[in-house]
Structures are given as structure tokens and as C-alpha cells.
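Fold Annotation — chain and its backbone

Fields — amino acid sequence, C-alpha cells

___
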Amino acid sequence: MKRYLICLLLTVCLGHSLYSQVAVLKGRVTDESGLALPGAFVRLMDTDYTALCDESGSFTLEAPAGKYSLTVSYIGMEPQELSVEFPAAGLLEIRLLAQSLDLSAVDVVSTGYQQIPKERATGSFAHLDQELVQRRVGANVLDRLEDVTSGLIFNQGPQAANDPITIRGRSTIFSNSQPLIIVDNFPYDGPMENINPNDVASITVLKDAAASSIWGARAGNGVIVITTHRGRESQALQVSLNSNLTVTEPRDLFHIPQMSIPDFIGIEEQLFGSNFYRALETNANKPKLSPVVETLIARRDGKISPAEADARIAGYRQADIRRDIESNYLQPSLNQQYALALRGRGKQHSYHLSLGYDQSKADLIDNSSSRWTMAGGNQWKFLGERLEAGIDLNLARQQSNTRTALPNGYAYESLADEAGNPGLVTQLYSTRYIESVEGRGLLDWRYIPLNEIGKLDHRTEAYDIRISPSLKWNITPDLGLGIYYQYWSNLSSGRIRNSQELFYTRDLINKYTQVGTDGALSYPVPMGDVLDIRENKSYSHTFRPQLTYAKVFGSAHFLNVLAGAEIKDHQGLGFSDRFYGYQDDMGSSVPVDWISRYPMYFNPGSQVSILSAQSHSGTTDRFVSYYGNVGYDYRHRYFLTLSARKDQSNIFGVEANRRGVPLWSVGGAWILSEEKFLSGSNMPFLKLRATYGYSGNVDKRLSSDVTARYVNFLFYDVLPQMRAAVLVNPPNPDLRWEKIRMSNLALDWETQNGLFAGSLEYYAKHASDLLGEYSVPASSGQTSFTGNFAETQTRGIDLSMNVRWFRKSFGWSTNLLLSQVREKVLDFEKIPTVNNLLGTAFSAAPQPIVGRPLYGIYSYHWAGLSPDKGNPMGYLDGEASEDYLGMSRAATIENLQYHGPARPTVFGALRNDFSYRGFALSVNISYRFGYYYKRRSIDYFTLLRGEIGHGDFDRRWQEPGDEEFTQIPSLPATADTRRNAFYSNSGALIEKGDHIRLNDIRLSYGFAKDRQPWLPFRSAQLYGYAHNLGILWKASDDGLDPDYQTSKPLRSVSFGLQIDF
């Protein structure tokens, strides 16, 4: 027994002695600016004790007490070696200096779930740091991506309505085509206008499956990850103030060429002489006629003399309503932006607070908008940094106030007389009719636009709230459990009050006015204002538990594992209504009879119900997702990544949810420059990457269940007392997400001293199970059915290259972005009509043709103008022909002329940055190649029906021989719809869209306390920015901007000051 007690005592003492030899060292690794370097490798020399820094750059080492040499390395940074002693008091702060490399410097990309050092990434990322994000001035954060992000393009023209931004081409046909937006690790469902660009620290674009597949069924269109500022990694409070002013030129009403006023009046006189307007004069609806026609009628009827008529028409020839609108309604728009930010960090606590205010005055007078934003957050560490807690709060409030609307009228009408008094403008009804009903007890039925300036009351207001608490428990130095939650809410409301002073309201009251048998008037639409209101509320709850595991095994192996689940519930509610006879001071209205039909005052034979704007809507969107990601690193040289995600939703069909096939990806990377056979080369960084995997896309407009919408039959002008349900979509238990398979092969490189650095990537996408339509028998109650059956293919390359020409007192660097994308449809059952194909140039809806891109430009073959009459000619049976009916009947998809894609297939930008002693100049030139567009031209059919035509009228064929110099047909004697349709859809109007544009210029001067010790602040920057500076070159010679045919891109100039305290 005594021997046993002695052994036990020795064991306890020895154990205590051994335990006392183990000591702990805690540290944190950052770059020069204090930015954390997650993934930095820490090692005690001549031992097996190693650690890898977590997302905050922190590490923990356990080793026997004593003195050691500690090394810290991170690709793109100079390795650092220092002496340390175990145990250590306090936190060891280590700052690494950047190497002279550029591509791999200190980039840390974010997937929205985790941050990954760029050298360990196998996927395709485009990363914009704070400097690049803040290069552009403006209120919209997504605009900061334009022409500085490889593979991403801002689409323009009619086709951009559904997808203004595409990443590596369009991945769907008719479904949602918007990239998924992630803000601070959660999908953001609100308007992007609620995000203050001054709060953004970085933006990462996820372009391939390995980068984005962890977002599963929502990542098929690419993912844009926005990361906002957090507490700075320093002890001291840092305060930043940014203020700027942007002036933008007003819209250009003369951008679209218009035929001259004298020519148009000449057409009206010709039409009047051929009695074209006779039918309109006697039309029961009393339609409006132009002032010239009214003058000619008055002269014909002897109400004015020929001399007086000639004098009036001579005055009209000198007028142009566009000039009056410019002088009375338009002004340069003005945007003021202010941002204040406070950031700091203590030993166990970091915090940030930012306030933003934007005030905009539109180019249309009396119209304005404003935005308030607030973002704040706190992060704490407890229990020796084993427990981390945080909470973020984001608020945004937007308001808009529209007091004036643009007037409309005939091209030669004047808004004011010679004395400056507000003038009458023709609107809806014949002037003769308006004059004939004066004094009959009606409200003033005249339209005087200048009297309505500032009288419209259209206000909108929106509140956006995000609350994001988080808790992370570092169970061991390698294993962590995070619990993340976000509540999001957006409440928007709007009201349009059309006062009785406005023509809109007076016309509404007048045309419903009833005349009794005794001549007394009654008003089904009561006297007073008309008020339209709407309210929309959306909110969501997102809950995400997530496990992370990061472990270094020996000195060569690193394993990083991420696994979690995400539950989301999104609800949307909408409501709208209309009130008649509204009195704003009393807040009261008068009820009306929505059901009965009333004869119109101007045409008693026409009976119409009073419009009701009542509507209610609601949506429910629930997602449950499971995801995982594994990353393996061997000797910081070989990398392997795996990810998978399974999504289930109330939107998907029963069968799709039951199968639950996960979307996944695999990726690998090899840093060739770490190999011995390249150790002596001039290529200090060379990396090969390859990925393969699947992501998805969801169309929230569809459901697997039968859905219908209740409507009132009064909208269909039949059976007004009855209600009905309109089928939205039939049942589809097989409805599932669209699936996008993508492979990516890339090479990253950088030469000695960082002179040349770049990345070249080739990708291939195959989209299957795309939503599309196919015809079904009419006996089913539907003419078509939407299901998952279409396929497309996209292939392309992305090149990003940086050249640092000089980098000392004078700095000059060049950045080249080049992207090429080729799309084509592989499978689509429903064949578009010829007319649909001919209309694609001005349509946002794609017209899929197997073997062709989704958006193409098609036309009739053009054979020129006939030399005798100047008629447009095409081909029929291989011969030049003027048989427009025959050519139309013979047209098929096969014999239409296909010119090429309607969207650029090659695009990019060339940016040059210069610096010298505090001055910095940045010039960005963008380019778009490999696409076509249809220009607008004269439409003789509408011209010969009394509407002013295009400026091409001045260049029309007028005599034999003109066909050698122009392709504009002659003016026909009468309106010929077939002739006009052939010309407007012919190859004569197709142009190449290739062009090079001077996108923007930024000039700044920086002050710094280390250069100017007298400064009362740490640093400051004065900057100027100019945007949309014009086209430098284009392939066509039509004088128009290929991307902005209907409206001119407006030039803007900004001036600002940023101060850091």
C-alpha cells in the first residue's frame, strides 16, 4: 500500500511538472493597413508546432515553455521571422509587408459563407478592393462594377430590361436572369438603392461552379458578394468623412433625329388635300387633330381667311415644342452625397458606425429624391477569444417626390405665347369640340401644361431594415460552431394625388359627367382629387448554423471544412386602392359605383365603368438548404476543393423535392512556381486552376401547385357583375430548379518584380432543365405549358492583365480586361414566328432558335431601291422584287437573313492609372465588339397617318439616281403597310455595334500627414470624376450611339473631398 501511494504521488507530481511545461502563445497576423490575413501559416522553427490563422487573422500555438524562432508566411507577402518566448504575455501582433508582386498580393475573396485567401482559391473570382470600389462616384453600388470586372457586362438597349447585368453570358431563357446578391454573408432581397456605396469595403464576383455552387439553386446566374466595413484592426478610433457633388447634363430631346417641322407640315397639308382627316372630323370620340389641320378646317369652313391661315401655319413652321420643354422643364440634375464613418477596435471589442445622406434633384424641375442610411455593429470576444458575438444593424430610408411631369403635344406647338403667357396644347380631343362645350357646366377641358408645373403630388417612401446577430464558439483552436441569423424587412408606400387642377382629373370628371332629362348634370366621378395609394411589405427570416474546421497536420497538410444548413422564410404582401373626390385637407373621399356603366359625355354611345385600382397580393417563399465545403492544401502548393448543396423549396414540385439531387463542384489548383523546376525562372508566381460542377436557378413566378388569380370581369368589358379566376399556371409536380453545369480552366501568373501579372480563363457552361414553353392541345384549356425541358450552351474566355510600367516617384500601371462569350440554344421546342424574330431588335424577350444565340438580329434580305420609283426591294425566288406580300408569305426562319448576336460577344476595358507626388489620374476606356443592332428610320405608315417621322425623311430617295447615295425609300403616295413593314424589317437598317468608348476619368490629389506634418488630420483626398465622355470609334457611320439609340448617355462631373482623422 505504501509503495502504491508513493507511485501515485510521483505520477501526480510528474504530471503536474509536465503540464506546467506547456505554454500558450496567441497572436494576430495582418498586412500593413491592419487587414487580417486569414490562412497565414505560422510555425516554430525546428519543431512540428504550426498554426493557421482564422478569418480574423488570429492564431494560437501551444508549446513547451522556452524561446523559439517563429516564422510567418503568406503568399504575396514578405515572410517574417522573429524571436518569441513561451509563455507570452498579451497578444502578439505581426504585420507582414507586401512583396513587389501584384496579382497575388493580399487578396482575400469572399464566397458569402467564408473568406478564402486568393492563393488557395480554385474557383473563378473577380475581386474589387476598396480603392477600386470607391473609384467611381455615384449612389448605386452595382454601378461600381461596370468596366472594372472581367466577365461581367452591363447590357444596354431594349434587351437589357430583364437582365441589366450578366456574368459570363445568360444562363437561362425565360426564368430569373439576375445574379444573386449577397450582402454581408446573406442573400439580399431588397432594392440595391438601399446599400450605401460608402459602406462597402470590397466586392467579389463568383463566376464559376467552384466559387458559386455552395449557393446551390440560386447561383446559376453568378453571385455578387458585397462586404461592408467592420471595425478597423487598430486600437485607435478612426473617423472618415466623404462628401461629393455630381452634376449631370439634362436629357437630350434632340438625340433622336426628327424630320423638319416644315416637311411635316407639308405632309399634313398633303393629307388634308386628299381628305385623309374627314373620317376623324366626324368620329364619335371627337379625337384630337393637330393645330395645322384645325387651321385648314377653319379656312375651308370660312371661319378664318386664307391670309390668317397662312400666317398661323407660318408661325407653326418656326416652332418646336422640344425647345419649349428644354427651357421650361429641364435642368442639370444634381446629386449631393455625404458619408461619415467611425471604426475602432479594442483588445476584445470592435465596432463601426456609418451615416449616409444623399440628396438628388432630377433634371425635371421640382422633382427630387433623398436617401438616409445607417450601418452599425459591434463584435465582442469572450472567454479568451473562445466565444465571439456580434450584431449588425442596417437602416435605410428612401423618399422621392415628383411634382412635375413632362408634357406632350404636337411637334410644333408652343407652351407659351410670344408674351410668355401659358399656352394651350392639344390633348385627347378636338379643339373644335372643346370650344363647343364651353359654358355647359363642365370643368375647364383645356390642357395648359405650364399651369401644371409643380401641381402633381407623387410621393414614395421606403424603409429597409436588416438586423444580423451572430454567435461563434471556438470549441477548440481548430473547430468552431457559428450561429447566424438575419431579419430583413422592407416597407414601401406610395401615393399619387392628381388634384382637380390637373387636366387628368378634370378630364376624368368631365367624360363621366351625365346629363339628365332636365339638362341637369351629375358626376359619377365626384368633384375633387383622385388619390392612388399602394403599400408593399416584404420580410424574411434566415437562420444558419455552421460548423468550421481548420487544422494543420504536420508542416505539409492543411484541411479546411465547412458544413451547415440554412432555413429561410420570405413573405411578401401588397395592397393598392384608388379614392375619388378626395380632399387632402380633410383626408376624406366619396364612394363611387364601380359596377355600373356610364355613357361618355363626348360619345354617349360608348359606355364604360369607372376604373377601380383595388388589388391585394401575397407571396410565400420558403427554402431549406444543406451545404458543405472541403478544402485541402498540401505544402501550399497543391489545392483541392469540394462543395455540395441540397435545396428544397415550396416552389419546387413534390418529385423534385423528394429526389433532392444536390448541386456540387470540385476544383483543383497547382502553384507551379513552388516547384523546383521553376525556382530559377522569372515567374515567381504561376498557378494552374481547374473546376467542374453544377449550380442552379429558380423562377419564383412559377409554382408546382395550381395557382389562379381572381379578377373582376369589368377588366374584360363583359359581365361586370361577375368575378372570375384566371389560371396562372397548371399543376407541375416535376417543376424543379434549372441546372447549370460549368467547367473552368485557368492560369494565373506574375513575372519578376510584378511587371506583368494576369489571369486567363476558359469556361464552358451547359444549362439544362431550363424553363420553356411548348404547345399543348387547346382542349386542355391552355395553349402552352411551361416546364423544364430547354437547353443552352455558353463558352468563352476571360483575360485580366496588369502591367506596372513605373512604380517609383512616377507610377504608371495598365489594366486590361478582355472577355469573349458565345451562346447558343441546344434544345427548344416552340419555334418563334417570323414576325417575332424580326422584332427581336426592339424586344426584351429572347426568341430561341436552336443553334443560334438567345438574342439575335434578323431581317429580310435587302436588294436596294428601285431606280425608277425609289421603292425598297428584297428577294423573291432569288430575284430582286417589290412584291411585299409575296416576300412576306415566303419568309421562313431559314430564309431570313441572320446578321449575328444582338449582344456583344467581345467586351472589356483598358484602364491606365498614373501617380506622381500625391496626384493620381485614372482613365478607363471600354469596348464592345461582335454584335449588331437595328437603327430606327422613317415610318411612312405612321407619317401618312399624321404623326411626325424620323429624320431619315430628309435623306429619302426623291429622283432617279438617288439610289446610288441613299437607302431611304421614297415617300409613297398612300400609306402602304406591307411596303413599310418590309423596309422597317430589312437589312438596310442593320448596323454593326462595335465601338470604343471613353468611359470615365478620375483625377485626385492626396494629402498625408507624413508628407505634410502641419495637417490637422491623418490624410485627405480631393478628387474629380467625369463619366460618359463619349465614343472614340465605332464601326457604323449613322451618327448614333449603338447602345443608346433612344436616349443619350448623359455626361456627368463629380467633385469630392475625403478626410480621414
